[in-house]
Amino acid sequence: MFEFLARVFGRETTASKNVAKERLRLVLVHDRAGVSPQLLETLKNELIKVISNYMDIDEKALEVSLETSEDQVALVASIPVRGMKRIPKELASSI
Amino acid sequence: MSEIIVVTSGKGGVGKTTTTANIGAGLAALGHKVVLVDADIGLRNLDVVLGLENRIVYDITDVTEGHCRLRQALIKDKRYEGLFLLPAAQTKDKTAVNPEQMKKLCGELAAEFEYVIIDCPAGIEQGFRNAIAGAQKAIVVTTPEVAAVRDADRVIGLLEAAELRNPALIINRIRPKMVRHGDMMGIEDIIDILAVDLLGVVPEDELVVISTNRGETVVSDERSRSGQAYRNIVRRIKGEAVPMMNLDDSGFLGRLRRIIGLK
Fold first, then answer.
1. What angle do CA B242, B243, B244 make, to 5 degrees?
2. How far apart are CA B12 and CA B16, in angstroms?
3. If residue A84 lies in a helix (H) or strand (E), which one and from where to where?
4. Per-residue b/e over B221-233, b at no fewer than 16 CB within 10 Å?
5. Checking phi first, is residue B261 left (phi over 0); if not, alpha (psi -120 to 50) or beta?
6. Which parts of chain B fold into alpha helices (H)?
7. pLDDT class for B23, splitting at 50, 70, 90?
8. Number of domains, chain B
């Protein structure tokens, strides 16, 4: 009912422009993300560096990828943990 | 000091050639010396848009291959003093010219002309690489459609990778009434997404079709909305700060304003 009224009064709830904009936004996320495998590789190496401060991880089994579903793109990382590291002193004080 | 500008878009059919012709004619109408280079080898069109198709003797590959001198291949426009065309070859393919040759050619043209404007082919392959090789600035043309804006985004990325930073955007064939009704992406929507500077907005206009049928450019048509838009674009290219024109004049007041000649 509301939608009907909205349409009668010309509100933008069903505006096709918004559909276009949303589709464009998504397609560009894919396009821009899909540009370089090097970028993913760099990201992966940075991730290893940061996570290694806290955990002992299996670097060779680490996987990073962009997964796309219908309405979103997700950065998915699979990081096998071998063990926890003892928290370094400088970090322990701030926790 | 001359400027070498490439007009590109990624997607075909958005109005690159029409834009190139109108910018060229507009600059020439203001007394500048301009050469338009058709880099769409194998699918030349700039000659027919300018109404110069019957006067071609030599083309761009004749110059790069040394069959003629550059001067001999340039066609002088009938209507605009100072406007010249270097036509593309029609019977060859994009590999007939390489980026090095284009750079050299652009350099030679820049020595003679104030503005060298290159009409880039659609696509992002060799023809595109050739067309942008000698350029210092880029204009990206798009229409308010998902496919065209997507391709524009891709092209902007490739231009920046090729050191052609800060390309300027022209949004072509916008329909103010549809934008107002929320059925077409508007200027802000597109600028938001592409994050580039706006050089101009050209409304959809039947006069473009009519003038192109005749081999004329709409930029010199005083009554035309699109002509006004192109004249504004030309002035912005020259470095003037020209406000964006109010496209939304289809209401009563707008019509009245148009009738009494206020733009």
1. 115
2. 8
3. strand A81-84
4. beebbbbbbbbbb
5. left
6. 16-29, 46-49, 60-64, 70-73, 99-112, 126-133, 146-161, 176-180, 187-194, 206-213, 225-237, 252-259
7. very high
8. 1
Distance from CA of B146 to the nearest CA of A (A): 6
Provide the 3-class DSSP secondary structure of residue B117.
strand
Q: Which two tokens stand for residue B239?
A: 């470095």
Contacts of B163 (CB under 8 A, 6+ apart): none
Cβ atoms of B74 and B85 closer than 8 Å: yes
Per-residue pLDDT tens digits for B147-181: 999 999 999 999 999 999 999 999 999 999 999 99
Cross-chain Cβ contact A28/B150 below 8 Å: yes
Q: Give the strand pairing for B75-76 and B83-86.
A: antiparallel
| CATH number where B90 lies | 3.40.50.300
**Where in the sequence is the domain holding B54, given as residue range(s)?**
3-259
So what's the ipTM on this one?
0.79
> In angstroms, rounded to a whole number, what is the distance separating the alpha carbons of residues B185 and B146?
9
Distance CA A14, CA A17 (A): 9
Q: Does B145 sit within 8 Å of A20, measured CB to CB?
A: yes
Instruction: Retrieve residue B35's tokens.
Output: 């050469």
* SS3 category, B224: coil
DSSP symbol at B122: S
CB spacing of A16 vs B149 below 8 angstroms: no
What integer pLDDT is reported at residue B263 of this predicted model? Answer: 46
Of A15, A28, A35, the CB nearest to B193: A28
- For the beta carbon of residue B181, count every other beta carbon within 10 angstroms: 14
Pairwise CB contact (< 8 Å): A28 & B185: no
> pLDDT by residue (tens digit) across B108-125?
999 999 999 999 999 999
Please count the residue pairs, one from chain A and one from chain B, whose beta carbons lie less than 8 angstroms apart: 40
